[in-house]
């Protein structure tokens, strides 16, 4: 079996995988289907069986990344089906862990020269139930409703969302970029902050 035939069996998945690495390393302007084809060991025309252009491939990369990220958050929610605060804490931990373990996704979503295009892709190609922000925001809404029902206090939904997101996003960036010096286990430190500190102590 030739190298190209071997790759053709799983060529689309391979193009997405290798494409992410190339996009992360070279940026949008230097990214091309020809380079991805070379990385996959196939002819320069092979990617066109699945993608019309480099933007088409980048869209597929973004959609797959969004799906993986959303699945991570959904799994966190499912661990605590009847505990809204624990859902948010576990989601926060999963958020940081996902981007620390996959820094290329962090750069793609938030730090790359294609990040603004990713935001547009979210609105066009991702269905509501598969968008990480919707999964997160729905958990915030459940937590807000619980607090207001129990304490009869008004809780600003957007303030709560920004507070939770800002904390975990900041930790993810600091750890992924190694800007916070620490000799211990970063993820254990994150769990300590989210579960043992004042996070969601409302």
Automatic annotation (TrEMBL):
GO terms for molecular function: DNA binding. Keywords: DNA-binding, Transcription, Transcription regulation. Pfam families: TetR_C_33 (PF13305), TetR_N (PF00440). Residues 9-69 form the HTH tetR-type domain. InterPro entries: Homeodomain-like_sf, HTH-type_Tx_Regulator, HTH_TetR, MT1864/Rv1816-like_C, Tet_transcr_reg_TetR-rel_C_sf. Residues 32-51 bind DNA. The keyword Ligase does not apply. This is Transcriptional regulator.
């Amino acid at each position: 079996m030739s190298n190209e035939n071997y790759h053709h069996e799983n060529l689309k998945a391979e193009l997405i995988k290798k494409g992410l690495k190339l996009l992360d390393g070279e940026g949008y302007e230097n990214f091309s289907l020809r380079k991805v084809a070379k990385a996959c060991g196939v002819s320069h025309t092979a990617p066109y069986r699945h993608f019309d252009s480099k933007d088409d491939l980048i869209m597929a990369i973004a959609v797959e990344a969004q799906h993986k990220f959303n699945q991570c958050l959904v799994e966190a929610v499912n661990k605590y089906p009847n505990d809204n605060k624990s859902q948010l804490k576990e989601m926060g931990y999963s958020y940081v862990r996902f981007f620390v373990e996959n820094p290329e996704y962090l750069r793609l979503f938030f730090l790359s020269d294609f990040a603004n295009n990713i935001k547009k892709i979210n609105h066009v190609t991702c269905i509501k139930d598969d968008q990480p922000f919707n999964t997160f925001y729905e958990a915030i809404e459940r937590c807000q409703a619980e607090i207001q029902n129990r304490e009869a206090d008004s809780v600003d939904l957007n303030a709560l969302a920004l507070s939770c997101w800002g904390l975990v996003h900041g930790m993810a960036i600091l750890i992924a970029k190694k800007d916070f010096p620490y000799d211990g286990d970063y993820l254990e430190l994150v769990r300590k902050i989210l579960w043992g500190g004042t996070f969601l102590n409302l």
